[in-house]
Amino acid sequence: MNTKGSLFRGLFSNAVFVLILISIVPMFVIGYHLMDVNSRVLKNEISQKQQTVASRLAAAVRFNITHNTQYFSVFVDLHTDFGGHNFINAADLKYLRRSNPSVLYLAALNPEGKLLLSSGKRAESVNWTQEIKSVLQSCVKEQKPYYLGGVYPSKDGLFMLMAFPIRQHLNDRRVSGVLVAETGLAELGRTLLQVYPMDMNAVIATQEGQVISYNGAPGGLAAEPQPEMTDRVLEIKKLLGSSSSKEIKLSSGEKILVAEADLPISGWRVYVDQPADVTVQLLKESTFHSLWDVTVIVLMMLLFVGVVSYWVIKPITRPLERLRRAAVKQRENGDYVVRPEDLDIPNNEIGELAQAFVDMSGALHTRRQELIGAQTELAQMNQALEKRVEERTHELKAATRELVKSERLAAIGQMASIISHEIRNPLAVISNATRLIKMLVRTPDAKLLKQFGIIEAEIKQANSIISEVLGYARTRDLILSTIDLNSYLREILLSYPFIPGITLKDELDPESVRIKVDAEEIKQAIRNIVSNAVEAMNGGGTLTVGTKVGRRVVCIYIADTGPGISEEVRHKMFAPFFTTKARGTGLGLAVVGKAIGRHKGKLFIQSEVGKGTCFQIYLKIYKKPGDTSYGEAS
Question: From CA 19, how far away is CA 1, in angstroms rounded?
C-alpha cells in the first residue's frame, strides 16, 4: 500500500479538511456578510441617485411646461383688462406666434366650441373633435385655469395641445371663449439633452405609455413611435405598482433598478433605470483591490493547518492506518492471521484496540476452519437431497399428467357412452318416423319437403357430433401399414367434397416416400385440417396441399388463404371442446393433435391475421425409393 498516498486520504485528510473549514469558513462567512451589507448600502445609494436624476428631469419638464402655461395665462389675463377690445382678434394671435416661435398654431373658440379665428396651419394628426370636447369640459364647465392635451407628431417634431379660458374681466366667472395653442416641444428636448445622465437609461412617457423623450433621442424628443420602448414602459409601470423605486425583473429575464417621478401638471412620468448587477460589478472592482491581502492570509492559514496536522494528527492516524491495512488483508485472505509485529501498538486506547484486533483475528481463523468443514458436509448432504427431490418431482409430475389424462379420457368415454345410448336411439326413431311420414304423404308441398330436409340434415349433424366425441374418447391400438404418401394424399383429396369457389393447388414433392402409419387415423386428421381450412375461407379461396421430403422426415403442409388465426386462439385451439364456430364440438383439432402425437410426429402452425394459415405435419420416413432397410434401420 502506498504510504505517501495514505497521507492524503482517510482519517488524516478528513481531520485536515475539518481544520481548514474551521479556519477558513468563518472568514468567508464574515466576508460574505460584509459584502451583502455593502451591496444593500450601495443599492440604496444607487436608488437614491436614480430618484434624484428622475426628480431633476421631472423639474426640467415641469419648468418648461409651466413656462409655456404662464406665458399664455399672463397674455390672456393682461388682454382681459388691458387689451383695448372685448375679445382676442387676429392681430393678437399673430403677435403671440411672432413673439413665441414654439407656437405652431393658435385658435380662438366661443364657449360652444365654434372656431372664431385662427393663425397658422393646424396639424392633421390632432383629433380635434375629441380634443375640443375635453377643452370645453375643462375650461368652460369646470373653469380650470388651463388645459393640457395630448402630445402629437408633426413635420417639425412633437408638439403639445394647450387651452386657456378667456374672460372679459379678471374677476368674471363667465368664460367668453377659449384660446387653443399647438406648442412645439423642441425647447423641452434641448433642455432634456443637457439634463440626461450618461450612465443611466431615462424615459419620459404619458400615462398610456407614449414615449415623449428618452436618453439618446435625436433632439431630445421621440419624433418617431417607439413600440418596443412603449411596451417596456408599460411593463415597468405595472411591476412598480405604488412604489417609486425598487428592483424588478422584466419578462425578458433582465433585472433592473428603477426610480420613478410623477408630473402631475401634465400626467407624464419619468423612469430612470440601470441593470441590477451594477452593484455586483462595483463590489467586484472594489474587492479585487484587496485580493492579494486575502490570498496571503489564506496561504498562512493553510501553512498553519499543515504543521498542526502533521505534529498532532499523524501520531493518531499512523497506527490506525496499519490497523486498516491488516484488516484489508484479513478480508482479502481468510487464512491470513494478524500478528502483533504487523501493527504499531502504542501505549494508549489505539494500542488496546490493535491488541483486541490481533486476538479477534486468531479466533476468526479457528472459527473459519470449523465453518469450512461444516459447509463441506452440508454441501454434500444438500447435493444428495436435491438429486432425490428432483427425481421424485419428475416422477410425481409424470404420474400427475398420466392421472389427469386418464381421468379426462375416462370422463369423456363415459360421456360418449351416455350420448351414444341416450341420443342415438332417439335420433334413429326420429329418422325412421321422418321416412315413414314422407312415405305416407303422397303429395307433399315444397315447404313440407324443405322441413323434412332440415330434419334429416340436423339428424346427420347430431350423428356426426356423436361420432366425433366417440372417436376422440375411444383409444384403440394403432393399426400400422406402409403407404405411398403422394398416392395416399391424392386419394384423400379426391374423396373430399370440395364446394364451388375453392381452388385446390397441388404442390406434392416429385420424390414420393413411404410412411408407416395408421392410415385411417392420419386420414381423419388430414380431413379435419382440410375441413377447417375450407370453412375458414368462407366459400372462396385457394387450398394448397404439398409435401417436402427431408433426409429422415417428410413435411405435409396444408395452407389456406383465409382470415388467419390470432395468437390467443392459437394457444387454445388444440384443447378439447374449444371452438370459435357457432356450431361444433371443438374436437376436430384435438383429434389431429392426438393422432400426430400417437405417431410421434410434430405439428406446427404458421398464421398471419388477414393472410391465411399453414399447418405443417412432420412424420418419420419409413422408406425412400430404392431403399431396402431404411425404415427398419432408423
Answer: 26
In DSSP terms, 166 is beta-bridged to 177
DSSP for residue 421: I
Task: Give the count of beta carbons closer than 10 Å to the beta carbon of residue 164.
Answer: 21
Q: How far apart are CA 11 and CA 88, in angstroms?
A: 100
First to last CA, the chain: 69
Residue found under cell 433592473: 256
pLDDT for position 226: 85
pTM, to two decimals = 0.44
Q: Which residue has the cell 388444440?
A: 574
**Three-class SS state of 598:** helix
Environment class of 152 (CB within 10 Å of its CB; exposed 0-12, middle 13-18, buried 19+): middle
> 585, 507, 583: which is closest to 543 by C-alpha?
507
Task: Please tell me what DSSP assigns to residue 499.
Answer: P
pLDDT tens per residue, range 429-451: 777 777 777 777 766 677 777 77
Q: Which of 148, 162, 153, 63 is nearest to 105 (CA)?
A: 162
How many CB atoms within 10 Å of residue 331? 9
**What is the layout of strands, in order, in the sheet containing 157-166?**
115-120, 103-109, 177-184, 157-166, 147-154
Beta strand ranges found along 452-498 (DSSP E): 480-484
What nine digits make up the cell of 608? Answer: 398471419
> Three-state SS across 95-113?
HHHHHCCCEEEEEEECCCC
CB 203 within 8 A of CB 214: yes
What is the C-alpha to C-alpha distance for residues 215 and 117, in angstroms, rounded to an integer? 39
Q: What angle do CA 614, 620, 621 make, to 5 degrees?
A: 110
Strands 255-263, 612-620: pairing kind: unpaired
- Give me the DSSP letters along 376-393: HHHHHHHHHHHHHHHHHH
Cα-Cα-Cα-Cα dihedral of 99, 105, 109, 113, to 10°? -160
Give 603's strand partners.
Answer: 617
Contact status, residue 159 vs residue 152, Cβ threshold 8 Å: yes
Q: Convert the pLDDT of each residue in 37-56 to its tens digit.
A: 666 767 777 788 888 888 88
